[in-house]
Amino acid sequence: MNSVIRVEGLNKSFGGKQVLFNMGLAVQPGEMVALIGASGSGKSTLLRHLSGLACGDKHGSSSISVMGRSVQSGGQLNGQVRRLRADIGYIFQQFNLVGRLSVLRNVLLGCLGRMPRWRGSLGMFTPEEKQLAMASLERVGLADYAHRRASTLSGGQQQRVAIARALTQRAEIILADEPIASLDPESARKVMDILADINEKDGKTVVVTLHQVDYAARYCKRVVALKSGHIHFDGSVDALDGVFLNDLYGGDLDTSLVLASHTARLPARPSMSLIAA
Ligand SMILES: Nc1ncnc2c1ncn2[C@@H]1O[C@H](COP(=O)(O)OP(=O)(O)OP(=O)(O)O)[C@@H](O)[C@H]1O
């Protein structure tokens, strides 16, 4: 099967300090992959490279392609990378909404990559685009909030608006960088449920960086673990036992709590109809 994301030989340095080392990664269409690792291990940096928000070191024969199209090669961004980004939905830890705009307007911003610039700059959205935006809000359980100012929503609700924006974008791939890091457990579960639902029902490929190993274990079959800028492990979530995590996090993590919570603290995933505002 052709990989939907392929990374080969990626190195990245900041000011002479190398933070990614000869990375290679292949993600198949429809996978939901967790990127885990200690703080500073390189998760966000790797994710940013996948969507062309950052570019690898110039030396070497590195390459990144998404959906068969080059994002960067040999440390040079593809000139068409903006067009490619229309197929990649990016979810940020801090949501990246425009707080003074309505929820619906924020979701409609997802259409910008696929419409003529002049129409986008005038904010002229078609009835079909508005319909799609409303359907996306419905999907994340926030249709009733469409006309509220985005800044008045809770963090968890704002993150769900950001996911609705990615749905409106009709992104084939969702890259989520610590999407639940600043959320309470209840909101975090709702956000992860929605990402999993989009993965399962729509077949979208999801790559999500997570600090919380219990959520990685609960929601993703495949885990890629980074350690000091290297891919330390790439395989089944079943490998996440105490010994593995102690090795990965160097004792920074309370693994007994994490692994206990995997089964005990997280309730079964509810059906999407139960996800309420
Ligand atoms: N723009 C930058 N300039 C300089 N150094 C950077 C920059 N971005 C990241 N780094 C460094 O690269 C390394 C990897 O950072 P990165 O944010 O990718 O790690 P992470 O695993 O996502 O960490 P966290 O879980 O804390 O978000 C760190 O040492 C970080 O300080």
TrEMBL record:
Q: Which InterPro entries match?
A: AAA+_ATPase, ABC_transporter-like_ATP-bd, ABC_transporter-like_CS, ABC_transpr_PhnC, MetN_ABC_transporter-like, P-loop_NTPase
| Pfam families tied to this protein | ABC_tran (PF00005)
Q: Name one GO molecular function term.
A: ATP binding
SUPFAM superfamilies per UniProt: P-loop containing nucleoside triphosphate hydrolases
Q: Which GO terms describe its cellular component?
A: membrane
Which positions carry the signal peptide feature in this UniProt record? none
- Annotated ABC transporter domain residues: 5-253
Domain of life of the source: Bacteria
The protein's UniProt keywords, in alphabetical order, are: ATP-binding, Cell membrane, Membrane, Nucleotide-binding, Translocase, Transport
**PANTHER family on file:** AMINO ACID IMPORT ATP-BINDING PROTEIN (PTHR43166), PHOSPHONATES IMPORT ATP-BINDING PROTEIN PHNC (PTHR43166:SF6)
What protein name applies here? Answer: Phosphonate ABC transporter ATP-binding protein
Q: Give the encoding gene's name.
A: phnC
